[in-house]
Specification:
Layout: H1 8-15, H2 18-29, H3 32-45, H4 51-57, E1 67-71, H5 73-85, E2 90-95, H6 102-113, E3 118-124, H7 126-129, E4 130-131, E5 134-135, H8 145-163, E6 167-171, E7 189-192, E8 196-200, H9 206-210, E9 214-218, H10 223-235, E10 244-248, E11 251-256, H11 263-274, E12 278-282, H12 290-299, E13 303-309, H13 315-328, E14 331-335, E15 344-347, E16 351-355, H14 361-366, E17 369-374, H15 377-394, E18 396-397, H16 405-425
Parallel strand pairs: 2-3, 3-6, 12-13, 13-14
Antiparallel strand pairs: 1-9, 2-7, 4-5, 7-8, 8-9, 10-11, 11-17, 12-15, 14-18, 15-16, 16-17
Length: 428
């Protein structure tokens, strides 16, 4: 991958005096109240489905294959509940977010009822601070009574889980020291006995279950044991020095450790560079180093299509992607309705990349992530049929003349600035 310090804005950021960096960060923090109000308005403008009803009526997909896509939260929870009910020895769950809403309660009930003697839930410390995609105690949330109540309910639910024999830990403690400032552990992982594992992008929170998203259920021999070992290292707060990577039948798995580890970025870069005919990328968050790689693919004649949300929770990100699509002649399609949180890349209609990693600078090297590179023809065909075809049909083509060049370029600059700041903060 291209060295992050080669980007012009990053060189500019590193050249700034400390006092100017502080002023810029303070100015950005002043936008927090406005961004929170914008997110709330977008949520009101697009009525969310009744998650409790969806969960009660969801059917699990057919589980006859070793690799199975679970599309959206309710279908994923139906499959997971079935596996947890049949667990015999152990169940481990790792998530970025866990909240006492219908999604979190569904998992909690399944864990409490699970017959396995060992049941563990590992939550990133991020979830202490952020509930329902909102920062508890932020300036724009000081009088948000519902948010404070949900945070209290989540703490109560964790107490109840522990009372029923479920071990619960928070990972990667937040803090002001060098360790506490590390990027979040972004992995979403479930392992049931030595038989089944789930990887993907779905957190146990209501808004995430209402978004469009994916989890991959894997029953391929050896995978559950491999991923259980990764969970155990994280559970024990062991500091890994190298990523774990292994090929299985039809699937390659990458467990990146973050903190500068480029295993995820390298795996995605190889897929993009190897593409000969087409690349279709669906993701809400796309930045460098991937935008330039997609541009390089376009210059050699590869058809590049990006699908992202019309109603995204970070409007600046969408406009930044627009700037890149204009610059590199990439096709951009906007999907209406609930936000797509899908993180998937299909290369030449044959190789599917998916997992917890967004296609952005955070996932490329800073955050611990799990990535799957799948060449199983049955799974890829199912992705095309149940994810790609419907999303292409429901989305519309973005036309460059419908959005101001100034707006998209400014957004691209802000995203690059944010990337420079975070990479510098983490010593990259």
């Amino acid at each position: 991958m291209k060295n992050g310090n080669d980007f012009p804005l990053r060189r500019w950021w590193h050249g700034l005096k400390a006092k100017y960096r502080i002023l810029i960060v303070l100015a950005l923090l002043c936008t927090v109240p406005a961004s929170g109000q914008l997110a709330d308005r977008l949520a009101r403008d697009h009525e969310a489905p009744d998650l409790a009803h969806l969960l009660a009526n969801a059917d699990a997909p057919s589980l006859e294959n070793d690799l199975t896509l679970c599309i959206d939260g309710p279908e994923f929870m139906a499959a997971l509940a079935r596996d947890l009910a049949g667990a015999k020895e152990s169940v481990v769950v790792q998530t970025l977010a866990f909240e006492a809403d219908p999604a979190g309660l569904a998992l909690a009930h399944a864990l409490i009822d699970c017959p396995a003697p060992v049941r563990r839930l590992l939550i990133d410390d991020y979830s202490r601070l952020v509930q329902n995609d909102k920062v508890v105690g932020a300036p724009n949330r000081l009088f948000d009574v519902d948010l404070v109540h949900e945070a209290e309910q989540t703490r109560t639910l964790i107490t109840q889980l522990r009372a029923h024999g479920v071990e619960v830990r928070y990972g990667r403690p937040l803090g002001l020291d060098a360790v506490g400032r590390r990027a979040r552990d972004h992995k979403k992982l479930i392992v049931v006995d030595d038989d089944v594992a789930y990887v993907g992008g779905i957190n146990f929170s209501e808004h995430n279950f209402q978004w469009h998203d994916l989890m991959l259920r894997v029953a391929t021999p050896g995978v559950a044991e491999f991923l259980a070992a990764d969970f155990e290292r994280t559970w024990r707060a062991e500091v890994a020095t190298t990523p774990a990577q292994q090929n299985f039948d039809g699937i390659e798995l990458v467990c990146a450790i973050g903190d500068g580890d480029e295993a995820i970025g390298d795996a995605i870069a190889v897929t993009i560079r190897d593409a000969q005919r087409s690349l279709v990328l669906e993701c809400p968050y796309i930045t460098e180093p991937y935008l330039s790689l997609l541009g390089e693919a376009r210059t050699r004649g590869v058809e590049v299509t990006i699908i992202t949300s019309e109603n995204i929770n970070r409007a600046c990100m969408k406009q930044s992607i627009m700037a890149a699509c204009r610059r590199y002649d990439l096709q951009m399609r906007l999907l209406p309705g609930p936000m797509t949180h899908v993180k998937a890349l299909l290369a030449d209609g044959e190789t599917l990349v998916l997992g917890s990693a967004n296609f952005d600078f955070l996932s490329a090297s800073l955050q611990p992530e799990i990535l799957a590179v799948v060449n199983d023809t049955t799974l890829v065909a199912d992705f095309k049929k149940r994810v790609l075809a419907p999303d292409l049909a429901a989305s519309r083509t973005w036309q460059p003349n419908e959005t101001s060049v100034a707006v998209t370029d400014l957004s691209a600059g802000l995203i690059d600035l944010a990337g420079n700041f975070l990479l510098a903060l983490h010593g990259q």
